[in-house]
Structure formats: structure tokens, C-alpha cells
Specification:
single chain, globular, disordered N terminus
């Protein structure tokens, strides 16, 4: 099953029917190969494994990380086999992190449907996330270059530290530096790894591509944080204010509190009353 957004006919000079449609089209063949890898590798010997993994992948998703990886790989001249493997792993790690996040956050919904923990339970989702990470390592270990495997280990640790940092700050207003550390860990780290094609990109390109991916990841997380505050739940698939309700002071909230101190006091009172 291919989840790449379909081509749609449109009048000349009209706005694209799907945002970034031309970008997806340019790597369509690679994305279809990545979907095949995801379908083959995300399941397992137990029916529940395919059900849990398919609950997220079947709900859609923009495949931003694989697309970023494939575009960078074409720029760097990386062969089809390795670039498709790394791209698939970027989505598998992302899916694993979402499964773990929904357990930690006790999220009721994801992508417009009940979250996987609400359907399958916390234990199944934690273990399926672990399985996806382990399978990702196996796929990278089969590549002739050990760079993607070694760099992914560092990337996953950064993601975990970012999440732990956010958990440690729950209910308290973090500094600007702490907000950025969270964003750069939990989101930007995987974007950077994907943009550098798991460090398969040659040295002259590796650093610039990783920096681009990191900055794109920061922008993506800021946009996501804003949607948590003012997005349309029908489009985002999440309820408004979920992060704040969980005691998470995100970067947009931090900056808003700096601009309006009375907002800081109101949030502090609300969080204190909520914890009583």
C-alpha cells in the first residue's frame, strides 16, 4: 500500500492541489520503494505487531523525514539501495518515537484517530516502539558503511534526552535555552540525521545538510507547538492545548509569557490549581 499523496490534475498556473506535491513527485519512485520497506519491516511474527505499527502508518503522515533524506541523497549521489534504507529507517524511528510519546503524554488522539495506547494499551506500544528501533538498527547494520548505524545511536540518544529534559521541566517555565534544547533534541535531531542521509553524505555536504535539517526540524516543531495552541483539531488530529494541559511550556508559550508577564502568572495559577 503506497501512502504517497496522489497526483491530481490541475489547471495551468493554479496552486498545487497538495502542498509540496512537486517535491513528492520528484522522488516518487524512491518513496514507493520506502513504503514497501516499511510494509515489510514494520510488522513481525505476532498479529498485534502489524496492528500497532499499522495504526500509525495507516493513518497517513507526510513522510517528511524520508522525503528530506531522499532529496539530500540525490544531491549527494548516494545509490538507491542505501538511500532507501536510510529513508525507511528515518520513518521507522519517527513512528517508534510517536508510540513512546503517546504513552508518556497519555495522548488521547493521534492523526485524527484514537492514539495507539488507547487502542492497544501502553505495554504493547512501548514494546512495538522498541521493536521498530531494533529492526532499524538491523537494517542499518546490513549496509557496507557503518556511519548510519553509529550516527543513529547518537541521534536516538539526543531524542531521548530532549524528551527527558521536557519531562523534567513539566509545570515550570523553562529558559529560552532550555526550550531550544528540547526542540533540538526531540525533533531536530532526527531531521538532521535524515538530511545528512545518516552521514552517508560526503564530508563537504554532510555538515551543511545536517545544519539545514536541524534548522528545518526546529521550524517544524515551532509550527507544531503553535498548532497545539491555535490549530484546527479537525486538521491537526489533536485537541487544542494538549501540551499546556500536560504542563509543557513550549517555546511559543515561553515567548508569549516574556511579552506579557500577566500571562505567565495566569498559567502558573492554572497549573497550580490543576495539580491540587
Amino acid at each position: 500500500m503506497v501512502l504517497v499523496p496522489p497526483l491530481e490534475p490541475r489547471p495551468r498556473r493554479a496552486a498545487p492541489a497538495v502542498p509540496l506535491q512537486g517535491v513528492w513527485d520528484s522522488v516518487r519512485e524512491d518513496l514507493e520503494a520506502v513504503e514497501a520497506i516499511l510494509h515489510a519491516e514494520s510488522g513481525g511474527p505476532l498479529p498485534v505487531m502489524e496492528l500497532v505499527a499499522g495504526h500509525l502508518t495507516g493513518a497517513g503522515g507526510k513522510r517528511l523525514r524520508p522525503t528530506l533524506c531522499l532529496l539530500a541523497a540525490r544531491l549527494a549521489g548516494i545509490p538507491a539501495g542505501p538511500r532507501r534504507t536510510v529513508a525507511a529507517v528515518s520513518e521507522m524511528i519517527h513512528t517508534a518515537s510517536l508510540l513512546h510519546d503517546d504513552v508518556v503524554d497519555e495522548a488521547p488522539t493521534r492523526r485524527g484517530r484514537p492514539s495507539a495506547p488507547r487502542v492497544f494499551g501502553n505495554a504493547s506500544c512501548v514494546l512495538m516502539g522498541d521493536s521498530l528501533m531494533a529492526r532499524s538498527l538491523t537494517l542499518l547494520a546490513a549496509l557496507p558503511d557503518p556511519g548510519p548505524l553509529v550516527s543513529l545511536a547518537r541521534c536516538v540518544r539526543r531524542m531521548a534526552v530532549g524528551e527527558l529534559t521536557q519531562l523534567s521541566l513539566a509545570g515550570r517555565e523553562p529558559s529560552l535555552a532550555a526550550c531550544l534544547r528540547v526542540v533540538e533534541g526531540k525533533t531536530a535531531a532526527l531531521f538532521a540525521w535524515s538530511a545528512a542521509v545518516g552521514e552517508l553524505a560526503p564530508p563537504p555536504l554532510r555538515g551543511p545538510l545536517a545544519r539545514f535539517g536541524r534548522r528545518l526540524g526546529v521550524a517544524f516543531q515551532i509550527a507544531d507547538d503553535l498548532l497545539d495552541l491555535c490549530g484546527d483539531p479537525a486538521q491537526t488530529g489533536k485537541r487544542i492545548g494538549a501540551d499546556l494541559a500536560g504542563g509543557k511550556i513550549t517555546l511559543p508559550v515561553h515567548l508569549a509569557c516574556r511579552a506579557a508577564p500577566e500571562l505567565r502568572s495566569a498559567i502558573a495559577e492554572w497549573l497550580e490549581a490543576r495539580d491540587e
